[in-house]
Amino acid sequence: MVRKYFGTDGIRGRANGVITPELALKVGQAAGILFHRGDHRHRVVIGKDTRLSGYMIETALVAGFTSVGMDVLLLGPMPTPSVAMLTRSMRADLGVMISASHNLFDDNGIKLFGPDGYKLSDEVEHEIEHLIDSDTMSKKLAKPAMLGRAKRIDGVHDRYIEFAKRTLPKNLSLDDLRVVVDCANGAAYRVAPEALWELGAEVISIGTEPDGFNINKDCGSTEPDALARKVREMRADIGIALDGDADRVVIVDERGRVIDGDQLLAVIAESWKADGRLAKPGVVSTVMSNYGLEQFLHELGLTLIRTPVGDRYVLEQMRQHGYNLGGEPSGHIILSDYTTTGDGFVAALQVLAVVKKRGEPVSKVCRRFDPLPQVTKNVRYRAGKPHEHSKVRSAIADAEKRLNGHGRLIVRPSGTEPVIRVTGEGDDRNLVEEVVDGIVDALNAVAA
């Protein structure tokens, strides 16, 4: 199925380049028409992160939805998982998050959730794309008396904070823990520090002064150096780094060392297995997860089920086969007992619960296995499919021959930006770096 607008995580691109007011208007109209089911008064909730372009896109979406007769409830800056949660709890017909997740401010995106709080299927997104490009939407606009209304609603931050706190045991307190939280100047800049404080932690916050331009800039889960420095400076017990829309997380231990999503999956899987909380004896992740995680889970009697890259594919596998724990090395952690999408903050709380239960330093709790050496490099391209070029295919074949069965290679286009990601994994780090560099050189030669 060829997709014109949607990628692996909604529609994403440069603000006023790919993501224009015209496109946002049409997305609102098309999604509103498609989810107009029955005679009840239809409603959509819209959240956003802190990008400057969020105002423009929000206004255009409101125009689109109200023009087809949907009422709009505006949440303001809120984490993506909270939008999914509120879509369900407020009995909305549709949920929208305006965000480009971990990208910098000049990108933005539109993520859509159905009334069940789950991201839309490929088939539904294809229907929306078809409507956007059709000439029939003008015939389906609401009559003047049936136009939608829009209003901003209060109290949604408190609702999400209480939801997040309820994912922990009632008697658990974070007393005696000094926590540094980096909110990436993004959507969780209010809710995450407050929730941690209410749970009893001593909280040091960074990345909580959004100005429309600084989201994910030298901060957050993709740039955790600032968090690591602050943890060491404050002699904190743990650091938590969220990304711009708070659907992913990385942890920093008391020594300032970064702990990725694979280790977090291992921590939660081991704890949940011991407590009898795993729905099935396995964890779902992607082809990018380190083989060390797979070995660790095997020793616990658990299976690692791999999917293509993208949290939507992880969740799809979880839903189809009944798993309740999944995620990605990037820190998308899906805990389906609580959420319908990745929730970086709730995942961090689960890790904090294990830290309190074991009474050991984070460096010990969160180092469950020794990862195999893994190298990832990105190559930007303008157009086409450079990874399918004969020179690149030849370089990949040569690399696989050199690895000789003692490693893995993954060459794939990003689903959210014009980048080819080249990942190598194996026992010999020098060899892995050499074969990855060879493929990168081939890609650069044909992508220029």
List the helices and strands and how they pair.
Blueprint: E1 6-7, E2 10-14, H1 21-34, E3 43-48, H2 54-67, E4 71-77, H3 80-89, E5 94-98, E6 107-113, H4 122-132, E7 150-152, H5 156-165, E8 178-182, H6 191-198, E9 202-206, H7 225-234, E10 238-242, E11 249-252, E12 258-259, H8 261-274, E13 282-286, H9 291-299, E14 303-307, H10 311-321, E15 325-327, E16 333-335, H11 344-358, H12 362-365, E17 374-380, H13 390-403, E18 407-413, E19 419-426, H14 429-447
Helix pairs in contact: 1-2, 1-4, 5-6, 8-11, 13-14
Give the terminus-to-terminus CA distance: 28 Å
Provide the CATH architecture of the largest domain.
Answer: 3-Layer(aba) Sandwich
Number of strands: 19
How are the strands of the biggest sheet laid out side by side? 1-2-6-5-3-4-7
Which radius of gyration do the C-alpha atoms yield?
Answer: 22 Å
* Total domain count: 3
> What is the third-level CATH name, the topology of the largest domain?
Alpha-D-Glucose-1,6-Bisphosphate, Chain A, domain 3
Structural class: alpha/beta
CATH class of the largest domain: Alpha Beta
Summarize the structure in words.
This protein has three domains: 6-154, 3-Layer(aba) Sandwich (Alpha-D-Glucose-1,6-Bisphosphate, Chain A, domain 3); 159-365, Alpha-D-Glucose-1,6-Bisphosphate, Chain A, domain 3, CATH 3.40.120.10; 374-447, 2-Layer Sandwich (TATA-Binding Protein). α5 (156-165) packs across α6 (191-198) and α8 packs across α11 (344-358). The chain is globular. It is an alpha/beta fold and 448 residues long. The protein has helices at 21-34, 54-67, 80-89, 122-132, 156-165, 191-198, 225-234, 261-274, 291-299, 311-321, 344-358, 362-365, 390-403, 429-447, and strands spanning 6-7, 10-14, 43-48, 71-77, 94-98, 107-113, 150-152, 178-182, 202-206, 238-242, 249-252, 258-259, 282-286, 303-307, 325-327, 333-335, 374-380, 407-413, 419-426. The strands form five sheets. It has a seven-stranded mixed β-sheet with strand order 1-2-6-5-3-4-7, sandwiched between helices. 36% of the residues lie in helices and 21% in strands. 51% of the residues are buried.
